[in-house]
Amino acid sequence: MTKRYAPATERNRAPLLAVLQSQLPEQGVVLEIAAGSGQHAAYFAPQLAPRLWLPTDVGAANLASINEWCAEVDCAGLLATQYLDVLDTVWAVEQQVLPESVSAIVNINMLHIAPWACCHALFAGAKRILGDEGVVLIYGPFKQQGQHTSVSNEAFDANLRGENATWGIRDQEAVTEVAREAGFECASTIAMPANNQVLVFRPQ
Ligand SMILES: C[S@@+](CC[C@H](N)C(=O)[O-])C[C@H]1O[C@@H](n2cnc3c(N)ncnc32)[C@H](O)[C@@H]1O
Fold first, then answer.
1. What is the whole-number distance in angstroms between the Cα of residue 109 and the centre of ligand 1?
2. Quick one: CA torsion of 21, 199, 105, 77, rounded to 10 degrees?
């Protein structure tokens, strides 16, 4: 059994779907980076037609799990799962002909569970793929002006850093600065349940 189960996806998927429906372009490929278990892909793709949903991840076990979740969904808009490590200087998806061009990049709960270099790499890749159009949506917990937004986020951050010194809840302003250097402006921030946020970036 390779199917993984991430309980948080069941709590955050409905509010996230509402944001996706309001922020995504009407058409094109939505490139999901760090798709994890694959539960989000299987839930979002059928509800976001006619957009196409392309789930990716760096971990072999996650790729297998994404395939299992997506196999249970009868959705023509779900594209084949792909390996994607944001740290690669060229992503395989950049060298492929997709059915439609990528119009959006979605990244859920990765930046705090990956080294900071992944933030730079994510926006560099997003710029290579999107150019001057589209949107990048980042979901997760963030600090604001160096301060945690809740006691629970502060405790979560300490746990993360204890597990891996390169992890940790990121400063929203630092993420926005990395995005700006890559050519994106923070168009809006959307408060989400449980002290999370969606950061909406568009090409400058
Ligand atoms: C906490 S999980 C979140 C998964 C899923 N988005 C969710 O919300 O359940 C963090 C994810 O980041 C992915 N990740 C970590 N480093 C990465 C990298 N360098 N490139 C792409 N994905 C990465 C992991 O494989 C994992 O799936």
1. 7
2. -20
Atom of ligand 1 nearest to the CA of 85: 20
Classify domain 7-203 at the CATH superfamily level: Vaccinia Virus protein VP39 (3.40.50.150)
- Answer whether 86 contacts ligand 1 (Cβ < 6 A): yes
Residue 1's pLDDT is 67
Band (pLDDT 50/70/90 cuts) for residue 196 is very high
- Binding site membership of 118 for ligand 1 (Cβ less than 6 Å): yes
Neighbours of 39 (CB within 10 A): 22
CB within 8 Å of 174: residues ≥ 6 apart: 119
Domain ranges of the chain: 7-203
pLDDT at 199 over 80: yes
Ligand 1 within 6 A of 58 CB?
A: yes
According to DSSP, the β-strands at 135-140 and 82-83 are: unpaired
Angle, in degrees to the nearest 10, between helices 39-47 and 60-71 = 40
**pTM of the entire structure?**
0.98
3-state DSSP call for residue 14? helix
The average pLDDT across 102-119 equals 98
